[in-house]
Design a protein that fits this description.
seven-stranded mixed β-sheet, alpha/beta
Length: 209
């Protein structure tokens, strides 16, 4: 019997499940699967090359966006950012992409549809979440910690426009050796969305393009 009465109640943030090869248009990646015991959500990391050699790793933390990643929506920049990140990793020949199942900045797919409806009626992306009773961003980047430790990564060249991701990784004692912007072309459907991310969420995106 454990001498610590709380030890039996403790569970890891993520548990590693298995790995496999994943050939893609850009490169032949290795896919690593993790499960979040508290929620049952499944998360993955894609790696290319030797990421555990102690050198900074080109990296992307990507939150799930079914509409952008799989359905090619032009309402956001998620799908193009995912593609650009994979292309950059393939070009470098080494890197990691952590794919977190945190749809709609953490509110889930069905609430994201509700938020989109509110945006159709005039709300911006932050206002829509708030009208549904959610914070503007509910994502938990702490999920990256067990992924990075499992993969033996301690320093990143982080591809992001979001300062919160940089701060979150630094809070996990992960060295950010370089910040790599991922700027996506605007279109009439994502223009207000990108401007709102810059003005209300602090993303490093120009608002005068």
């Amino acid at each position: 019997m454990s001498s610590n009465p709380q030890q039996a109640d403790q569970q890891p943030l993520l548990e590693y499940v298995d790995s496999c090869h994943l050939p893609t248009t850009w490169a032949h990646f290795r896919m690593h699967a993790f499960v979040e015991p508290a929620t049952g959500k499944e998360h993955i990391a894609l790696t290319l090359g030797d990421v555990a050699d102690g050198q900074p790793v080109l990296a992307r933390i990507h939150s799930e966006c079914l509409t952008g990643d799989a359905l090619f929506s032009q309402r956001c920049d998620c799908g193009p950012q995912l593609e650009m990140a994979l292309q950059k990793i393939a070009h470098e020949g080494r890197g990691v992409l952590m794919y977190l199942r945190q749809e709609g900045r953490g509110i889930g797919l069905l609430n994201k549809v509700r938020a989109y409806h509110l945006q159709d009626l005039g709300a911006d992306t932050v206002e829509a979440n708030q009208q549904l009773g959610f914070a503007a961003d509910l994502r938990n980047y702490g999920l990256c910690d067990p992924m990075l430790k499992h993969l033996g990564i301690s320093a990143l060249k982080l591809m992001t426009n979001n300062p919160r991701k940089i701060a979150a990784m630094q809070g996990l004692n992960v060295t950010i050796a370089e910040h790599v912007p991922l700027i996506i072309q605007r279109n009439p459907h994502n223009d207000r969305y990108l401007t709102t991310k810059a003005t209300k969420l602090g993303h490093l995106i120009q608002t005068d393009l």
